Amino acid sequence: MLLAIDQGNTNSVFAVHDGEQWVAQWRSATAPSRTADEYAAWLSQLMAMHRMDIRLLDACVIASVVPQSIFNLRNLSRRYLGVEPLIVGENTQLGIQVRTLKPAEVGADRLVNALGALAVYPAPLIVVDSGTAIKLDVIGRDGAFEGGAIAPGVHLSMEALHDAAAKLPRVALQRPQRVIGNDTVSALQSGIFWGHVALIEGMIARIKAERNEAMTVVATGGAASLFHDASAAIDHFDPDLTIRGLLEIYRRNTTTGREGTR
């Protein structure tokens, strides 16, 4: 069984694939100081709740944008799974052309998302990943990663506004029924929510205009579920995009993985 780990700046996703389908998936707050033993204890308890044993795991693939966590995640795989993990950006071949000025600087999560999208949707593509940052990435008609745009995410924007403006309260993120708020709280909620919808829609429109072609737009990420039905600019909401990309990387880099796709 494969353990796929997608670690972002805010949250980390641990998912288990049995060779046929995803059988379990868990999300936790990213904690760079968490040790391999702590990961194992946490994971063992969650797997037991699904009547699984951590000893069933015999493969691991990791994508992380938090370099200081990779040491502990690698030790988790080595110590408790007994395998050397595949780590995106270290010991994996992605099989995707990165058509940017500095390919080595492209985040692992962005390339994994590209592979996850290409496995299901027709190119050219725009992948909108809403997390700590909002990333809009472009995959060309030939399947190459061609760059994109990065902006502050919705939760980061809320925290920055609260911290920088003494009289503005911290508010719950929710979809307002009206754009025009009639008090401070509703005005903040409108600005954050509809402002981010406008950002996403505006960037999608500009990308399409710049490329002068029709493109499929796929949204993913922890905050994407808040926006996907608020805009006609998004064609598909796919919460499993990243872990699908990790599965694709595993299959491309292992004999057993390739055999499992036949």
What is the CATH C level class of the largest domain, in words? Alpha Beta
Total DSSP E strands: 10
Assembly of the depicted chains: single chain
Distance between the termini: 17 Å
What is the CATH-assigned architecture of the largest domain?
Answer: 2-Layer Sandwich
Kindly give the count of domains.
2
Written as H for each helix and E for each strand, in order along the chain, the element string is EEEHEHEHEEEHHEHEHH
Q: What does the overall shape look like?
A: globular
Structural class computed from helices and strand pairing: alpha/beta
Largest sheet: 5 strands, mixed
The percentage of residues in β strands lies in 15-25%
Using the coordinates shown, work out and report the CATH topology of the largest domain: Nucleotidyltransferase, domain 5
Largest sheet: spatial strand order: 3-2-1-4-5
Binding site for ATP: 6-13, 132
Family: Belongs to the type III pantothenate kinase family.
Cofactor: NH4(+); K(+)
GO biological process, one term: coenzyme A biosynthetic process
3D architecture notes:
It is a single chain. The chain has two domains: 2-92 and 252-260, Nucleotidyltransferase, domain 5 (2-Layer Sandwich); 121-237, Nucleotidyltransferase, domain 5 (2-Layer Sandwich). Helices cover 39% and strands 22% of the residues. The radius of gyration is 19 Å and the shape is globular. By secondary structure, the protein is α/β, with parallel strands linked by helices. The strands form two sheets. Strands 3-2-1-4-5 form a five-stranded mixed beta sheet, with helices on both faces. A five-stranded mixed beta sheet has the order 8-7-6-9-10, sandwiched between helices. The model has no long low-confidence stretch (mean pLDDT 90). Helix 1 (36-49) crosses helix 2 and helix 3 (108-118) packs across helix 7 (241-253). ATP binds at residues 6-13, 132. The active site is at 109 (proton acceptor).
